Amino acid sequence: MKAIWLGGSALAALISAGAPALAQETDPAVVRDVITVTAQKREENIQDVPLSIVAVSGEDLEERNITNAMDLGRTVPNFYATRGAAAANTRIVVRGIGTAGNTAADQSTAFFLDGVYIPRPSILYASFLDIGSVEVVRGPQGTLFGRNATSGGVILTSRAPGEECHGTASLEFGDYGHQQIEAAVDLPVNDTVRLRFAAQASEFDGYGESIPDGSSFGGDETVAARLSADIDLTPRLSWSVRLDHTRLSGDGASAAEALGDTLTPVGRAILTGFLGAGNLPELDDPYDHRVSHIVGGDLSDVQWGLSSTFNYDFDNGYSLGLISGWRDYENQQYDEDIFFLSIPLTGRIAGLHSESWSHELRLVSPDDLMDGRFSFVAGLYASHEDAAFTEVLSFTPRTCMVLAPAPLRAPCLNSPQAQASDLRMTQSSDSLAVYAQGEYLLTDELTLQLGARYTSDEREGRFLQLAANPLSARAFRAPADTQLDFSDETPTLRVALSYTVSPDHTVFASYSTGYKSGGFNSGGGAERLTAEERTFDSETADNFELGFKGSFLDNRMDLALTAYRTELEDFQSRSFDGSSFITRNAGTLVHQGFELDGALLIASNIEVTGGVAYLDSEFTSFTGAQALPGCSAASPDIPGCGPVGGNRRVQDLTGGKNHFAPEWTGNLFVTVDGEVAQWGWRATAGANYVGEQFVGGVIDNNPQVLQDGYALVSARLTLSAPNDRFNVAVYGENLTDEGYCGVSFYQPLSGQLGLNNASTGGTFIRCNTGAPRTFGVRLSTTF
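The structure corresponding to this sequence follows.
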């Protein structure tokens, strides 16, 4: 840790010392634009904000082909996003800390759309339609944000209606049947009422190929729309309202490729006997998106959202805002078989329904209190969510013959197989908070920032699991009807000192705390859990940061360096027992490292932007971690298994790493523009790197799910007509066709099928692969 602080201080000192000499060689007429952010609830220059923050404009989102939250990692170091086998299982990770999305748990990273909290990350799996800017704040957020978060916050802001009638339209075509049409138009009604409407329709065949019949899978169709209105009700009172709707449909399937080198000769022989020699999983290339298992399914993902912001400006410079939001989200996915085999055994219909509302009353002071030395933000926050998680499992006669023990086969065959089990977990959540944060100028150069928040969370739930088939009750979903209750009250705070070394250079130090509410396990299982076992406690974070921000070369270069240390208590960890997942509090996790972000305007038409992040992850206490999947009483004394003679299914992971926590991440983009024969052109080339990391959904440090580091290269060339009314862009993603696993998981029923390896603790691994190389063209016009 000491090396990180010393390294950061040395770099800042070196840059500061070299800045005057470098500045003498620059053209002062060429400067970078000032980037304005709102992470602290008022507009500020990003270089003045004592936070580790990355801002991406709507134009940059388009240039870098970032179309949804899953793509943000290409431009934000220490940010990672992936989806599991189900579309609702969207995992967002910041600084190596994240949460699976298809559970009742709160998220480690809080997302906000036009100031309103988004409770379920899968809501963001759809398109970034008409998004004007994205701000990613890394580190615990426990003061100003609507919901507390232990790893970071993401602020999405839609484009505001313009004051002149103006419109854009585009057509896009690409590999794998990608087609998209998009349009947006500003419609000012008069001087006080401005409207904007944006819509998008797209379709995609999917990357996957089913080997038995050659059909494609993984495709979807999306329709999205947003209506925005900005209304000046009086010269002092304004109202901004946004209504959005998205409908996504498809088969919902992911490739779930088999990692052939994890299947032992014994396991291969077992599968051959079970499936037949011609029905084995495709074992040759784990990244070609070709599979031999059943991939049939259906996905419906629908949401409506409404946000409203009233803002009143007082004569004395104060501003009072009321931010309200409502969102209804429903995701339902049918999978023909959930075991990724070539014969149908168990189908599933899984559902997630969330309806939420929130209100925030916020008072923002003027900047000139106490002779310009003091300012503050204060507010009240209330939110409510009703959520339901459902699952219906259905068997086939073969399920009974293959999986049921002999005495249970006849009862299984003679009992209902359609709707063999029916799970419904409902949860009602209420959160209340009061917060305040102020800044006081101790001297002309030194600023003190103090913030505090008090949060009260209450949850009530019911877990109901019915089993109509005896096999389901014994091996998959034990009958249960459990009432659940949870409440917690937690203060969080922030203390920061910021020192202006010179007008263009600032250093800061901060201490902040974060909090993620406890809750309930929503997943079913073969064992009935008590209310206490189904409940987990809140997760808390203490965060320390040292930072430097500066502009150099006559404002042609911006740099921001932050060194941090985050200590998490009662970390919420997920384990898997072969048929179900469960979340428990894991102990203590420490993440520390640094983030360096920068931009350089080499010339008026050449800009380089990028960043790099280093992360050191360590569990300082994790004695009850899940052992490797193949561990049993027959296993030798090997790492990853419990002690010989003791509980082999539990290991001590103290000193181990968290999953989805790569040591190094980074990105680099180069943009060059020019003109040829009155046609404008703009070229962007980029690369992002993700270092070695464990990508298993279960935290056990299994070396089989250790993904090697990889780099993804992209490029885009845009040509603009002389009148700038028309342009055409061609682009490519993952140009080197890099294969990698976004998330890995254990073959379901691996223990029952005899695929576990007691001698190594390993098992047969499946992999949700990243997107292959793709190309596309986009035609756009303005009117």
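The radius of gyration is 27 Å.
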